[in-house]
Amino acid sequence: MPPPTAKKYAFDVVVFAISQVALYYAVKYVLNSLDPMRDKKKEAKARSEQVLGKLGRKNMKLNEYEEAILGEIIFPEEISVSFKQIGGLDPIIQSLKESVIYPLTHPHLFTSPSGLLGVSKGVLLHGPPGCGKTMLAKALARESKATFINLHVSTLTDKWFGESNKLVSAVFSAAKKLEPCIIFIDEIDAFLRERRSSDHEVTGMMKAEFMSLWDGLTTNDNLRIIVLGATNRPNDIDYAILRRMPKRFAISLPNKEQRRSILDIMLKNQRLEENFDFDTLVAKTDKFSGSDLKEACRNAAMIPVREYMRSHSTSGGDLADVDPAKVDIRPLKLSDFFVPEGDIVQPTKSTVTPTVEVEPEQLD
Ligand SMILES: Nc1ncnc2c1ncn2[C@@H]1O[C@H](COP(=O)(O)OP(=O)(O)OP(=O)(O)O)[C@@H](O)[C@H]1O
Question: In sequence order, which ranges of 248-341 are alpha helices (DSSP H)?
Answer without folding.
Answer: 256-266, 278-284, 290-314
